[in-house]
Amino acid sequence: MSRDRNPCIVCGLVHPEGITVWRAFICRRCEREMVRTDVHDERYRYFVQRMRRILWKKDA
Questions:
Q1: Closest Cα to residue 26, out of 41, 45, 13?
Q2: What is the total count of domains within the chain?
Q3: What is the rounded distance in angstroms from the CA atom of residue 56 to the CA atom of residue 60?
Q4: Model-level pTM?
Q5: What is the DSSP string of the chain?
Q6: Domain range for residue 3?
Q7: Mind listing the pLDDT tens digit for each residue in 4-25?
């Protein structure tokens, strides 16, 4: 899916392609890294925290 200048909810950067989850954009790079991260990896907690931002968004 193509996005128009919306920053990624995970990395905060603007990317041309990614997915939308409840009106929150996740770039393709972050999506790939999230699905490949083991739950015991230290980055897993970071991704969970970033995904929680979706629930906290007023318009989500």
A1: 13
A2: 1
A3: 8
A4: 0.73
A5: -B-SSPBPTTT--B-SBEEEETTEEEEHHHHHHHHH--TTSHHHHHHHHHHHHHHH-TT-
A6: 1-60
A7: 578 999 998 998 899 988 888 9
